[in-house]
Each structure stands twice: as C-alpha cells, then as structure tokens.
Specification:
Blueprint lengths: L2 E10 L3 E4 H5 L6 H8 L3 E4 L6 H16 L8 E5 L10 H8 L8 E4 L5 H14 L5 E9 L9 H4 L4 E11 L4 E8 L7 E3 L3 E3 L1 H22 L9 E4 L4 H11 L10 H4 L6 H11 L8 E8 L3 E8 L1
Parallel strand pairs: 4-5, 4-6, 11-12
Antiparallel strand pairs: 1-7, 2-3, 6-7, 8-13, 9-10, 12-13
Helix pairs in contact: 3-4, 7-8
The chain binds oxa(dethia)-CoA (UT7).
Length: 309
Amino acid sequence: MIYSKIIGTGSYLPAKVLTNYDLEKMVDTTHDWIFSRSGIVERHFAAENELTSDLALQASLKAIEAAGISADEIDLIIVATTSSDMSFPGTACILQDKLGIKNGAPAFDIQAVCGGFVYALNTADLYIRGGQAKTVLVVGAETLSRMLDWNDRTTCVLFGDGAGAVVVRASDTPGIVAAKLHADGRHRNMLTADPLISMDGQAVFKFAVKVLSDVVEELLEDEKMTGADINWLVPHQANIRIIEATAKKLGLKMDNVVLTVALHGNTSAASIPLALDTAVRDGRIQPGQNILIEAVGGGFTWGAVLIKW
Ligand code: UT7
C-alpha cells in the first residue's frame, strides 16, 4: 500500500508589516474594532516588485531544505492561489522555472480560494497513492493586498500576503490519513473578487461556522475518531471567532489549536501551510501526532484533511 507523508515544511512572509494602527491612518477603522471582530493585530504586504511566485519560491526553498531533498526530485508541483502572478501561465509553472526544475514534472495551480491548500494537499495525496507521483511540492501562496478595496473598510482590514509550502512524499506508512472536500457554487456571490475582494461578512461567518463543523465531524466519524484524538487543529486563519466555534464543536481546547491569525491576517490559501510550518518549527507538532486541517473559502469550497505526522 502506498501512502503519502509530509516530509518538510517552509513558509515566507514579506518584510513589510502593517499593524491595525497603520490601517487606522488609511481607512476609517480602529485597532479595537479589527481585533475584537477578527483577532487580527497585523499582516504582511508584499513589496511592489514581489509577486506571488516570489513568495512561493522562498517558502518552497525552505520546505525543500527541511525535507532534505534536491529540487530535481520533485515530480509534481501544485500551487494553491487565488492571486496568481498573471492570468496565465500558472504560478506553478513560474515557480518551477524559479526553482530551476528542468525534469518536466507536471505543474498546475488550484483555484479554490481559501479552501485551496486543502484541495491541493488532497490532490497531491491522490497522485501519490495512484502511483503517478512520488515527491510533490504543494504550495499555498497569495498577494491579496493587490485585491483589496480600500473603500470597503469591513473587508480590506482582514487580509494579508504570505506563502507556505510542504513536500509530500510516497511512504509505506500513513501520513495523510483521510480527506473530505466539498463545494457549493450556489453561494458563490457571498465572497468574490472581480477584481477587488467583496464579501458579505455576516453571511460568510454563519456559513463558515456551519460547514466547518459539519466537515470535521464527517471526517472524524468516518475515521471513528473524536476531537479527543486530535493533537493539533491547524485551521484556515480567517477569523479567531470562526476558529473558536469550530474548536468548541470538536470539544478541543484552544491550547490544541495553532493560531497565526493575529500576526498574518487572512492569507487565503497560504494560511494553513504558514500555520503548519510555524508549529513544526517551534516544536509543537511532533511525529505520531494527529493533525487536523480545515478551511472554507469563496466558491464556496470547504474541506478537511487528517494527517498522522
Ligand atoms: O475565508 C473566509 C473569509 N471571511 C471571513 O472570515 C469573514 C467572516 N466575517 C466576519 O468575520 C465578520 O462578519 C466581519 C469581521 C467581516 C465583520 O464583523 P461584523 O461583526 O459582522 O460587523 P458588521 O459588518 O455587522 O458591522 C458592524 C459595525 C457596522 O456599524 P453599525 O452599522 O453597526 O454602526 C459597520 O459599519 O461595524 C462597522 N464597521 C467597522 N467599524 C470600524 C465595519 N467595518 C469596520 C471597520 N472599522 N473596519
């Protein structure tokens, strides 16, 4: 039996930091409003000449180094992004070139907005278990700062830029244990970018809490597990209140939740691999632990993946 295992993680945040106090000078808002509604304190914004593929490159180099492989061993590249460098080519192909990979490995983007990393990780797992790839680079990378409507104070304060990457490799023992993905296009107008981000915040909030609770329950039930079996919940970092609601539903203490929303804001497809890398590098995530990741995003798309680290 072939399984897939995450063997290295990496992440990258652009140097420029904007605190809520900085935003007070740009829009009619306050630190207290942003923090109390979302848990966000600050976020990173890419420099003018820094593209999504540049952030993806830095995160990938760290993940490749942590995995102890050479870039040439990668035989599939998947980039989850909703803020690609250009309409085409895909960011995965640009990243492949920037990494100097010339082995002809397939490379493509996944567009599932904030659900993108969960979709991408599930895709990598299926490629590996189907025998079509052995070493997959999975990246979530975003420059959402370029899509913000500075006339919409409810939305523009929530997002940030960043990238996270994982190397997933074929293994004899389970790493990625199970995944559940869903989408429902009837709700597509609740959160759109055409080209600037527009969101019905309250509707998204209610929807997110419901579907995230449902999908993690569905996944755990299938695996005959409960929240008590989960060592770390690594959720999409959109909003502390959505995260708290999901943790409560699972019966998980917030001590078992990896939180980066305060320092990163909502980085869409990048938020889970950024949070994963944070908790791997600071030693919270350890071999043998059960890690649950979950996300919901525009589309609407949502899903969860259970990982034995
Ligand atoms: O991946 C999914 C990504 N999306 C999300 O996670 C968003 C989910 N939604 C939310 O987290 C919340 O709905 C928001 C944080 C977006 C908004 O919080 P809310 O509690 O739903 O606020 P609201 O839109 O109902 O606005 C409440 C008040 C309004 O004032 P009045 O009408 O009550 O006087 C707004 O005008 O807050 C006002 N307001 C602001 N005040 C200061 C809206 N935006 C701001 C702001 N600063 N930036």
